[in-house]
Amino acid sequence: MSGPAAAVSPHSAPVLTAPAHWRVIDFISDLHLNAGEPDTLHAWQHYLQTTRANAVFILGDLFDVWVGDDVLRDSPADSPSIFAFEQHCVQTLHAASQRLTVFFMRGNRDFLVGKAFAAACDLTLMDDPTVLIVEDERYLLSHGDSLCLDDTDYMQFRAMARSDTWQRTFLQQSLQDRCALGKSIRAQSEERKRRNGQYIDLRASAVDEWLLANRCSTLIHGHTHRPAVHALGANRRRVVLSDWDARSTPARTEVLRLYTESTSPTEPTKVPHALRRIEAARAHLP
Predict the structure, then answer these.
(1) What is the pLDDT along the chain (286 residues), one digit of tens a residue?
(2) Residue 7 burial class via C-beta count within 10 angstroms: exposed 0-12, middle 13-18, buried 19 and up
(3) Sign of torsion, CA 217 219 220 226?
(4) Where would I find the H helices in the chain?
(5) Distance (Å, rounded) from C-alpha 177 to C-alpha 72?
(6) Which residues pair with 2 in a beta bridge?
(7) Which of 68, 172, 188, 280 is buried most deeply by CB count within 10 Å?
(8) How far apart are CA 223 and CA 242, in angstroms?
(9) Residue 129 near residue 145 (C-beta atoms within 8 A)
(10) Dihedral of the CA atoms 11, 12, 16, 20 (nearest 10)?
């Protein structure tokens, strides 16, 4: 697998080329893992332990909040870590990375994930957006929040929170203060979603601009929690991932699976470059 190539224009994304032996590629996002929802955690762990995918792409908001990679160092010898949940998740990712390739894209809830996290998990961090080339097809991958341009309040916060100055100031605070601020930011996000009824959708013109600039026909993203396939014209499409909530009825633990041209001829139902939605509990099946 070749590493990401450098972007060459403001809308041109890094490029990642899938190796020829990849037959099955999975995409997930918006699990919002937290200690208060163990059912979703267990569904995610079982999925990573059993999926038959060669590679898993996590497209943002794996965690409900991430206040800095130093949560992984919070392990005093004389008492259990208050961040045992985060550390347990990292152990799960590290174990998965020993049998398949894992990529991680930051979302609006876990944008402070950094290199220490990636090293501890043995996974690869991705820029948002990134072009994934699978044989002769180009897929544009994004969390999706950066294209919600009509959500002006959020876009203002995003510009501030993604700046080096804001992040440096935030990370200089104590872990306790960061956790309190992270809880406040999360509450504001939920209130904004409640007020609007749902997340504001991606701006169509911006989606078209990104796809054209990167010579892609398919955008795969999360963030909005509204799984769908939107036909955009000119053979372009926007594929939206589902969020996860194992406690809901029915449970939401959906994986978007891509079958490549190299899929075995003994599986004739797997159309080359077909995208299928499957439940995580069935990810071990052909």
Answers:
(1) 555 554 445 578 999 999 999 999 999 999 999 999 999 999 999 999 999 999 999 999 999 999 999 999 866 554 456 788 999 999 999 999 999 999 999 999 999 999 999 999 999 999 999 999 999 899 999 999 999 999 999 999 999 999 999 999 999 999 889 999 888 877 777 776 667 667 789 999 999 999 999 999 999 999 999 999 999 988 999 999 999 999 999 999 999 999 986 555 455 445 567 899 999 988 988 7
(2) middle
(3) negative
(4) 38-50, 84-97, 115-121, 152-161, 164-171, 175-196, 204-213
(5) 17
(6) 17
(7) 280
(8) 8
(9) no
(10) 110
Whether residue 138 contacts residue 132, with contact meaning beta carbons closer than 8 Å, is answered with: yes
Q: What are phi and psi of 50, to 5 degrees?
A: -120, -15
Strand stretches in the chain, DSSP E: 2-5, 15-17, 24-28, 55-59, 101-105, 124-126, 130-134, 137-142, 218-221, 228-233, 236-240, 254-259, 275-279
* Burial of 158 (C-beta count, 10 Å sphere; 0-12/13-18/19+): middle
C-beta separation of 126 from 79 below 8 A = no
Q: How far, in whole angstroms, is CA 144 from its chain's centroid?
A: 10
CATH top class, domain 2-149+201-282: alpha beta
d(CA 136, CA 261): 9
